[in-house]
Amino acid sequence: MEVPDMLRARDGRALAQRKLLERFHKPLLFFTMNIPGPQKVSPLIRIGFEEGVRRLEKALVGAGIPILFHKVIDYKTGYEKYYVLDGAAGTVKDIAARLENEDRLGRLFDMDVLDTNGRKLSREELGLPERRCFVCSEPAKGCARSRKHSLPVLIRNVERILTDFVLSHTQDSMKEALLGEVTATPKPGLVDLDNPGAHDDMDQETFKKSTEAILPHLLSMAETGWNFAGSGEALFRTLRPMGAAAEKAMFRATGNVNTHKGIIFSLGTVSAFTLRALKRDHRVKGETILKEVGETVTPILEEDFRKIDPYHPHTHGEVLYIKEGCRGIRGEAMDGFPAVSSIGLPALRELFTEKKGTNEIYIETLLRLMAGVEDTNILSRSDRQTLYYAQQAAQDILQKGGAFTEEGLAAVWKLNDDFVARHISPGGCADLLILSIFLYRMESLFQGLST
To answer: What's the pLDDT at 301?
Structure first.
């Protein structure tokens, strides 16, 4: 980026501000990122910018300040967004200052507020705390004046702050998905807050211990996807031993109880490809990511199936493959997790848009998955007739209103008693719910920027 570009951008901002003031006679907020160095745009910087927009607009809504006009400028001199706001300029400046001081990411936000006369409000005149340096947390003006930090140090810190933000929210999304599934209550045949379902070797505490044990490994798998420069196939091959390490951690934490083996494979893979796509496209679209996963893993997993000895199967999955031709979680991955794309994700998008309760949304989504999925966990523990029964039972509850009616919830409690007696556990659908929750949360945060 050259100096003339910066001068043109500065002049353009001044002209835009003047026109907006003449048109609306309302306070303006101009938001950009405080990025040192010549490179002002990148997928990572854009992700930080979009999070700033999300935080700002949420704060404005919370304060009851209407947005009369907004526009995004995406140019090589940096990402910018103009706002015309129907509120007091001082109140807007207070909101902006709080966001800029909220955390290390906030210190990268630069939010200038102009009153109706075009005068830029300062923190000092409003008695607001001064800005803090994003490197050392000392007053930012002093660091800038003394050039306390070199340009390479500033650039490295910006990248670290933005990367930490992405990884932090990825971990939060994983944890919400894993614990959100287990704490959703009631669930037929599955561990929840009330009872262990059709399981006599695990309960909610077992799942919580397992979650804490595998989360660091899952995050490492996701981070590998973020940093990986090779092909998708090479990425998947890199992830497999990492998944094996996560399984060992799970068994250590649970006393050799298999709580999460299937989800380690699926969530570890999907999270890695999600961050790979996020870095490349600076947005998350679940169906696109799952399709890419399917196309990538199919040749490798087909080779796994060819290696199965039909006379000496080693796992429940291999036995089921030989007996029923069911490919289990590997088959789901090869097909791009179609139940997540066609049932789980659409359900969560629809139901959260309607602002229903989270617990009920998770139960409802599970029921929809149970009604439409060939759950290989049920098949491995029972038979195909039992699978058909479970699918029909879930469909019957959905016809009674599912998780959103008293009759539907009462039917779920009753079905749990029946599943316990029959030793039925729809664990495959539980894993698909976890994947759906993870992708929904990642989509909601990293959905791309509207103009």
So the answer is: 86
Amino acid residing at 62 = G
Do the beta carbons of residue 445 and residue 353 sit within 8 Å? no
Of 82, 115, 149, the last residue of a domain is: 149
Tens-place pLDDT, residues 180-201: 999 999 999 999 999 999 999 9
| Mean per-residue pLDDT, 348-358 | 94
pLDDT value at 237 more than 80 = yes
Buried-state track 406-439, b at ≥16 Cβ within 10 A, e below 16: eebbebbeebbeebbebebbbbbbbbbbbbbbbb
CATH of the domain at 132: 3.30.70.260
Question: Using the 8-state DSSP alphabet, how is residue 63 labeled?
Answer: T
The residues near 14 (Cβ < 8 Å, ≥ 6 apart) are none
Question: What's 86-110 look like in SS3?
Answer: CCCHHHHHHHHHHHHCCCCCHHHEE
Specify the residue for token string 């004046």: 145
User: What is the extent of the structural domain holding 69?
Assistant: 9-149
**Mean pLDDT confidence for 219-234:** 96
User: Is residue 144 located within the same domain as residue 177?
Assistant: no
